[in-house]
Write a structure and sequence with these properties.
6 helices; 2 domains; Arc Repressor Mutant, subunit A
């Protein structure tokens, strides 16, 4: 405990700030609001795959052909991609991703 106090005093005197290791660890593992999490953390594997293809500029037909799935399936995944973070268009998705 005395060593921690000395460390805190030194840190505050040099930087004006101190954060204990225990507090830093607690903060690091706090869940943030979903809109602050990277989009890839909230997507399924297939949605993530389609997300990357959309970011590559591919359209629904190209994605369907590349993944050997139907256009309808790609559209459903695209809808889910937009819906999870509450977006309304692919343009918003790209902006959100950037």
């Amino acid at each position: 405990m005395p060593q921690t106090m000395l460390e805190a005093i030194r840190k505050v005197s040099t930087t004006g700030k101190y954060l204990s290791p225990a507090t830093a660890e607690q903060i690091a593992f706090l869940p943030g609001p979903i809109e602050q999490n990277p989009i890839e953390l909230i997507l399924s594997d297939r949605e993530r795959q389609i997300f990357h293809l959309i970011m590559d500029g591919k359209n629904i037909k190209e994605i369907a052909k590349e993944l050997a799935i139907s256009d309808k399936t790609v559209s459903t995944h695209e809808y889910n991609l937009l819906n999870k973070p509450g977006l309304k268009s692919v343009v918003e998705l790209v902006r959100y991703a950037l």
